[in-house]
Design goal:
The complex is a heterodimer of chains A (102) and B (390). Chain A is mainly α and 102 residues long. Chain A contains 4 helices and 1 strand; from the N terminus they run H-H-H-H-E. Chain B contains 7 helices and 27 strands. Chain B starts with 7 loop residues before the first strand and ends with a helix. In chain B, strand 11 and strand 12 form a beta hairpin. In chain B, helix 1 packs across helix 2. The chains are: A mainly alpha (102), B alpha+beta (390). The interface between A and B is large, with 34 and 47 residues.
Chain lengths: 102, 390
């Protein structure tokens, strides 16, 4: 098992999987969920800002491009805690990206 | 500075931990796991006066468990690779979870090194967020096996910002009982501080017809927004709630859109902030069977009926029945498992849950189980942080 290649969670050329990763780790918490539809973000431009933040956090070249190095970094084993805590985590809420009573 | 502090820390330095669920597979025995976890915690004691003591049962500060998939906290694990583990900051309980589907190893380049991963996770348990310094232990990515993980300068600055530098000699101190008072929060900017941050006890809380939630305390009242107090509050009750006195007892809004506010032997009725004519009226007239000077009044989400709490008793009021309070009442509040006597007030919030408030703390109720919600972190929780934005 230690030598098995784990299934990559972020796929090359898959903006959707990259967006899921960026959301999971807190990079997109500033997004207004009420006014932004996810499909608007599913473009290279839409995710560029967030990809850049991730690249900066990971100490990579900041290009804003979902290049192979960025995908590789996103597939590195890591801790499940968010990198960005702009919004607090509600540990027991189903809406894990929002800190609010709702 | 590359490190990040989440904002909460433990107030006590003698912390306890328990490994409540060991890995179910792999090459490590329970003794191995105990040893590696201890070493992982020692990484943090080297630079602070923190101490960690393992307990085999009972409540502890940091609960450690090896779990797989969805395991109850809304953040499921994903099998081998990917997410290895996560941990909760002190304000959320401090527990650490490890993905049981990883191949945990010790002193080996194979598999996933438990010591390295655990040392990182315990940083979160102590209040540290991720660092963007790739050489820091608190960088988010797994670095692989290291003979002895250690803190770099960024990590040391972070942990000492929370717990101070290690003193030359540790004074003996007794283990502390765990309570919500053992967690401390950073004070925010002064504009977000208000009286409820110093004293979170309340007189009453309710949601009005327009879905605004209000907290009443003394001569003032507060309007709540999503995670704190609305700008411009607190305001004087007398300024906005015509005819309403200070220091009210309880309040609730009924399905007719009217808010009923109680004090002593009287009650007032409002539509949002507009007082209906003819009020106040005696409680004995409008709420036959309900005593004066109640502690709390709320509409229970479980059945939509009105409940009044006073001292150690509660009453159920059904305006569609005669009499509205059955002879079997009052009943003991102890029936509401986990809810204390003499509460300050209760509220059916806009999210559908019923919350009980007392002495600055609150409990969320699980209507189906008919007991306090078994969540992490456990209830009671401090209302100042979770409700009032302190």
């Amino acid at each position: 098992p230690s030598n098995a290649m784990p299934i990559p969670h972020v796929k090359e050329n898959s903006l959707t999987s990259a967006m899921m990763y960026l959301m999971k780790y807190g990079y997109m918490d500033d997004m207004d969920h009420h006014h932004h539809r996810s499909e608007n973000l599913l473009s290279q431009d839409g995710l560029k800002k967030y990809i850049m933040e991730f690249q900066a956090f990971a100490g990579m070249n900041v290009t804003g491009e979902l290049d192979s190095d960025t995908v590789k970094m996103m597939n590195m084993p890591r801790c499940g805690v968010k990198d960005k805590l702009g919004m607090k985590m509600d540990a027991d809420s189903h809406q894990v990206h929002h800190h609010s009573r709702s | 500075k590359r490190f990040a502090l989440q904002g909460s820390r433990w107030k006590v330095k003698d912390l306890t931990y328990r490994i409540s669920k060991y890995p179910t597979s792999g090459q490590m025995t329970k003794q191995d796991v105990d040893g590696e976890i201890k070493k992982a915690l020692d990484v943090w004691t080297d630079h602070t006066d923190l101490t960690f003591t393992q307990k085999r049962s009972g409540r502890v500060h940091i609960d450690i468990s090896f779990l797989e998939g969805e395991h109850g906290d809304g953040d499921p694990f994903d099998g081998s690779g990917g997410t290895l583990a996560h941990a909760f900051f002190p304000v959320f309980g401090g527990d650490a979870h490890f993905d049981d589907k990883e191949f945990w190893t010790m002193e080996s380049f194979r598999g996933t090194n438990l010591l390295q991963t655990a040392a990182h996770e315990f940083g979160h348990s102590l209040g540290l967020s991720h660092s963007d310094d790739n050489d820091a232990l608190m960088a988010p990515f797994y670095r692989g096996f290291e003979v002895k993980p250690s803190l770099n300068d960024d990590d040391i600055k972070a942990i000492q910002a929370l717990y101070g530098v290690k003193s030359s000699s540790n004074l003996a101190s007794s283990l502390n009982e765990i309570s919500s008072n053992e967690i401390e929060f950073d004070r925010r900017d002064s504009e977000t501080n208000h009286i409820l941050c110093n004293d979170a006890r309340i007189d009453a809380i309710f949601t009005a017809l327009d879905n605004s939630t209000y907290v009443f305390k003394g001569q003032e009242y507060f309007k709540l927004v999503d995670d704190s107090i609305a700008d411009g509050y607190p305001r004087k009750i007398s300024s906005d709630w015509s005819g309403l006195p200070s220091n009210i007892d309880a309040a609730f809004t009924w399905k007719n859109g009217k808010t009923y506010i109680f004090k002593g032997s009287q009650y007032w009725r409002y539509t949002n902030k507009n007082k209906d004519s003819g009020y106040p009226k005696p409680i004995s007239k409008g709420f036959d069977g309900i005593p004066n000077s109640v502690d709390a009044a709320f509409v229970w989400s479980g059945n939509g009926l009105i409940y009044f709490f006073k001292n150690g008793d509660y009453y159920r009021f059904n305006p569609e029945e005669r009499p509205p309070v059955k002879e079997t009442y009052p009943k003991p509040i102890s029936n509401w498992e986990g809810i204390p006597d003499n509460i300050d007030d209760a509220l059916k919030y806009t999210n559908g849950f019923t919350y009980f408030f007392k002495d600055g703390n609150y409990w969320r109720f699980d209507d189906k189980a008919f007991k306090v919600d078994q969540a992490n972190p456990a209830f009671p929780r401090p209302a100042s942080f979770w409700w009032f934005g302190c």
